[in-house]
Amino acid sequence: MARLNPINQRRWAQFRANRRGWWSLWLFLVLFGLSLGAEFIANDRPLIVHYDGGWYFPVLVSYPETTFGGDFPTEAEYRDPFVADLIKADGWMIWPPIRYHYDTINYASESAAPAPPSAENWLGTDDQARDVLARLIYGFRISVLFGLALTVASSVIGVAVGALQGYFGGRIDLFGQRFIEIWAGLPVLYLLIIMAGFVQPNFWWLLGIMLLFSWTQLVGVVRAEFLRVRNFDYVKAARALGVSDGVIIVRHALPNAMVATVTFMPFILTGSITTLTSLDFLGFGLPPGSPSLGELLAQGKANLQAPWLGLTAFFTLAIMLSLLVFIGEAARDAFDPRKTLGGQGG
Amino acid sequence: MTTPLLRIEDLAIAFGAGNRETPTVQGVNLSLDAGETLALVGESGSGKSITALSIPQLLPYPLASHPAGSVQLDGEELIGATTARLRALRGGTLGMVFQEPMTSLNPLHTLEKQIGETLRIHQGMTPVAARDRIVELLELVRLPEASARLGAFPHQLSGGQRQRVMIAMAIANNPRLLIADEPTTALDVTIQAEILTLLGDLKRRLGMAMLFISHDLNVVRRIADRVAVMQQGKVVEQGEVEAVFSRPRHGYTRMLLSAEPTGRPAAVPDADPVLSVRDLRVWFPRRAGLLRRVNSHLKAVDGVNLTVRPGETLGVVGESGSGKTTLGMALLRLQSARGEILFQGRDISALDKRSLRPLRRELQVVFQDPFGSLSPRMSVEQIVGEGLGVHGIGRDATERGQRARGALEEVGLDPAVAERFPHELSGGQRQRVAVARAIVLKPRLIVLDEPTSALDRSVQSQLVELLRTLQSRHGLAYIFISHDLKVVRAMSHRMIVMQAGRVMESGSAEQVFTDPRDPYTQRLLAAALETS
């Protein structure tokens, strides 16, 4: 259905009526959009190089130093004054606003790492002389992407399992519920620590392991909704029409469960981001060197003499999570039948 | 002139806020003297319930508001009264009985706690003193074995008994005004009659005034002294019951009075039955003990035989819990059952889902609740066309759309309705959509499960008329399940009367109505006539 049906139109209006959530959504989308283009904002390669009459795009393509008249066939180090001078001698280059990649080490720093904020490093450097702002932008992106991936994947599995349990009921439901009870009782953190001993967890490993346990969150609500819906007359009518179970689940029952799902999603997202951050903080998360908010927090804790580390991580997390919670609240309002359908009492 | 007990002047009620405010009730004037019964009558949506709820100020404020008017109880203004004062009145001077006995009682409280609460709050009674009063009240509302039932929970009582408990709670503090909002609508006819008698007796004994809200004119005629007829938020006529009923002045009142379904179904030629059922049983196991062993069965449907011929209506009558709906679901194979179901000469009782699917087209159903039987997120065209898609009727979406529109036209709806969603339609229109969804497949048999019960009387007769027309045009066979004997009589050629899962009596509708043989049928008919 291309057009928004009247209920959804009213929900959208209700969502916009919550000004805080509405602005939070925009702010979050802008921040997230910017961080998706992190390579163009914070990078140790220039965006465009004009050299010797030719155009080069180092952000997208790797060029050996010899291209610009250097000595080594390895990739050009554009931050190296020698290379910069070579290019400037016969052309020019445009840099991103922040001339650091998340793993760029600022060898030119005048103070010892971690260095305090300066004109060169706006938020200072961390204890390995890497630019905090660059790491922050990349860390924000990876946090949100991880959160989104985990939320979408666990919602899909959770809704599917909840739908099957609720719609068919009986034995499937009974065994499903018992399984989930046992599964939810497993200590996730210990499992992660044990797993971290076997494999070096990367993004996908972590996502997979977290997914194993996070899908259970939505099962309860979706199952309850389906248990209610399956006895509705319009579901019975569909069965009497000969509509197959799969179609009934998707077409007639699922829309009812979507309200609960969509309302829950922003909160699952914040939960996922927090989980990743805390794992990184404890050192069981992303591999060493990855830009991550948790790792930044851990650095802040280890370097109390450099408060910009801890404060930066704290404010980033606080603002990001607050925005998501505000969006979640607005979504919850939008799906609240008492607000959306107000004025129809009697 | 003395001041009346209740005086409502120029009352207006609006819902919503700001520019979205919709006036729902306007310019209502009512007065009620002590010891008098005033009935508020009207079809659904006429504003009778919210008018009544505005007396104890129980509307969802601030969503609801009173742009104008006053409500005075004993000369005291209630609109704008303090919450503390209103709380003292509610359940004290003002007693209330609601429609649904199932949901009006807290399922987790015993009767003693339930009734005792109001005594404790309003009279500050100690538990011991309250206990005697509770027994007295339960005896007053004629609940059998009152003193033994103090510890009973609501689910251990029948619908009628629960309504008696509700009444006991309402009269516990000797109210001067009792507001009864459709107190008998959810009950079976035999029990309706008892509750009405009880309310009349109590009113006389306790000298209460009663505001009685109902859509059922027969009930009103029996119990009220005066009647006010409401239409679209306005009182269009009020006066003495006899005067209003014998000489209605307003056109709407006349319409309400003449809105009984009448007529008889057209005669049908003899033919081979389209459906014949032999010894149908639906037994639900009752388990008990540590091992959950089956020790007995709840026999919802127990050894039912019936046949329906093409073009014929078989009425299935019974009170709630008699198994008539379960029977309908079993015939549609939506409820597993044992026994033989011959549909067009073929036993369908053992078919699996897949082989049953082609037959679904010929075996359709219309449910009771027009609000629940249509998926709220689908447009009318999608709802009606869904079955066409399932059974591969029509070449493409355009042709299916045309067929769906054709079916809508056939049930008397404007085809433009196809674009709309169910919540934009009235109850009667929705029920027509449900009928269209069934007939678009050109079925042979339709199970009609209380299709008229949720509708207003005037809409009921239109639907009955429509169903009869469709039947004679397409030679449809109907199984018409209902507790409403008037509608059954207007629809059915033959009928069966069910009680506790068994068929008590079967025969031609005319014979069952004029000369019932079974004592249960006789009682049922007597009760229905008594309230009529």
Percentage of residues assigned to helices of chain A = 55-70%
Shape of chain B: globular
CATH class of the largest domain in chain B: Alpha Beta
User: Alpha-carbon distance between the termini of chain A?
Assistant: 32 Å
The whole-number mean of residue pLDDT values of chain B reads: 86
Q: What can you see in these coordinates?
A:
Chain A has 14 helices and three strands. With 346 residues, chain A is mostly helical. Chain A has a three-stranded antiparallel β-sheet. Chain A starts with 5 loop residues before the first helix and ends in a 6-residue tail after the last helix. Chain B folds into two domains: 6-102 and 176-258, Rossmann fold, CATH 3.40.50.300; 275-284 and 299-530, P-loop containing nucleotide triphosphate hydrolases (Rossmann fold, 3-Layer(aba) Sandwich), CATH 3.40.50. Chain B has a six-stranded mixed β-sheet with strand order 7-8-9-3-10-11. In chain B, strands 17-18-19-14-20-21 form a six-stranded mixed β-sheet, sandwiched between helices. In chain B, a hairpin with a 2-residue loop joins strand 5 and strand 6 (76-77). The longest helix of chain B has 18 residues, at 189-206. The radius of gyration of chain B is 25 Å and the shape is globular. The mean pLDDT of chain B is 86. The chains are: A mainly alpha (346), B alpha/beta (532). Chain B: It holds the Pfam family oligo_HPY. Chain B: Residues 6-257, 277-525 form the ABC transporter domain. Chain B: Belongs to the ABC transporter superfamily.
Write the layout of secondary structure elements.
The complex is a heterodimer of chains A (346) and B (532).
Chain A: H1 6-17, H2 19-36, H3 38-41, E1 48-51, E2 54-56, H4 81-89, E3 91-94, H5 132-168, H6 170-184, H7 188-198, H8 203-214, H9 216-229, H10 233-241, H11 245-282, H12 293-302, H13 307-334, H14 337-340
Antiparallel strand pairs in A: 1-2, 1-3
Chain B: E1 6-15, E2 22-32, E3 37-41, H1 48-53, E4 64-65, E5 70-73, E6 76-77, H2 83-89, E7 94-97, H3 111-123, H4 127-140, H5 159-171, E8 177-181, H6 189-206, E9 209-214, H7 217-223, E10 226-231, E11 234-240, H8 241-246, H9 251-257, E12 275-288, E13 293-308, E14 313-317, H10 324-331, E15 338-343, E16 346-347, H11 353-360, E17 363-366, H12 380-390, H13 397-410, H14 427-439, E18 445-449, H15 457-474, E19 477-482, H16 485-491, E20 494-499, E21 502-508, H17 509-514, H18 519-531
Parallel strand pairs in B: 3-9, 3-10, 7-8, 8-9, 14-19, 14-20, 17-18, 18-19
Antiparallel strand pairs in B: 1-2, 1-4, 1-5, 5-6, 10-11, 12-13, 12-15, 15-16, 20-21
